[in-house]
Specification:
The protein is α/β, with parallel strands linked by helices. The protein contains ten helices and 14 strands. Helices cover 32% and strands 28% of the residues. The protein is elongated, with a radius of gyration of 22 Å.
Length: 306
């Protein structure tokens, strides 16, 4: 295995569903107190990996351990010390907020007051609706209730599978503030997301694609490892601009990024901005702007996955 002091270790884990390979030799570790992110689009294998780490799915090959307990052979010990919030809302829809929380506390043999300090900031916004059925809550409120239920037994390791998917921007920010509080309390957290901007909040991230890990570093290290020159281009007739950018022989990649096009230029070209401007003008483009920019996680993902 990778490191006997790690909270979680995953080594050469494979999982297939028939002919579909969901995980293809995944290997990584998570250290105590880390906020670790699994970043990738839908279908990259994140949820399958979470289910294996949470002892709900057996890998076809490879080993995963949590606090040195094997997820297959010692799953009962693991379930007492981890909290798991799956991607889909999985609480009891016909129970109220309070009834769901009491149920999960009783399943773990604890009283709500024992660990109320962990959920106080979250539950305060839910308390006025404690008599409301879970299926009548908004998306953000459902996620907060699910997080409360995952935390009520004070787990040593918390799994969150795409907790902010389908949640409004304000609730997303609130959710990440809560995670930072839990991290400050010493909890180890593994969170998956398809929102690459959320990767910046993590200590380390693993970029996933097609059941494998492309890279596993801190967001800062990942940006520093970007090998090419990156420029942003924007202006009139963006589709026309994109086609012309992709036709330039020293452009490795060009793709839409919000209101801009990001353009990866082969190697370190000190005159990349001027060279692109000259090429676009030569193709009849006008009213456009070009500037060199630092890479962000999305750019690193595009580079590694191409």
């Amino acid at each position: 295995m990778l490191n006997s002091n790690s909270v979680l270790e995953v080594y050469e884990v494979h999982k297939s569903y028939g002919d579909v390979k969901a995980l293809n030799g995944i290997t990584f570790n998570v250290d105590k107190g880390e906020l670790f992110g699994l970043i990738g689009p839908d279908g990259s294998g994140k949820s399958t990996l979470f289910r294996i780490m949470a002892t709900l799915l057996v890998p076809d090959k490879g080993v995963a351990t949590v606090f040195q307990y094997d997820t297959v052979k010692e799953y009962k010990k693991i379930r007492d010390i981890v909290g798991y919030m799956p991607g889909r809302f999985s609480l009891y829809p016909d129970l109220t907020v309070e009834e769901n929380l009491n149920l999960f506390a009783s399943l773990f043999g604890v009283a709500i007051k024992d660990n109320y300090h962990l959920i106080k900031n979250i539950y305060s916004s839910l308390e006025p609706y404690k008599e409301r059925r879970a299926d009548k809550l908004s998306g953000g409120m459902k996620q907060k209730l699910a997080l409360c239920c995952a935390l009520i037994h004070n787990p040593r390791l918390l799994y969150l599978d795409e907790p902010t998917t389908g949640v409004d921007p304000v609730s997303r920010r609130e959710f990440w503030s809560i995670l930072n509080f839990l991290k400050s309390e010493g909890m180890t957290i593994i969170v998956s997301t398809a929102y690459m901007d959320e990767a910046l909040i993590c200590d380390r991230v693993a970029l996933m694609k097609d059941g494998g890990i492309l890279s596993c570093k801190s967001p800062q290290e990942m940006a520093l490892s970007y090998r090419d020159t990156l420029v942003a281009v924007w202006g009139e007739n963006m589709p026309f601009l994109l086609n012309k950018l992709r036709a330039i022989n020293f452009v490795k990649r060009a793709y839409s990024f919000g209101s801009e096009h990001h353009v990866s230029v082969i190697g370190e070209r000190f005159d990349a901005v001027k060279e692109i401007e000259d090429c676009l003008k030569g193709e009849g483009c006008s009213n456009f702007y070009v500037k060199q920019i630092p890479p962000v996680i999305e750019d690193c993902y595009m580079e590694l996955s191409s």
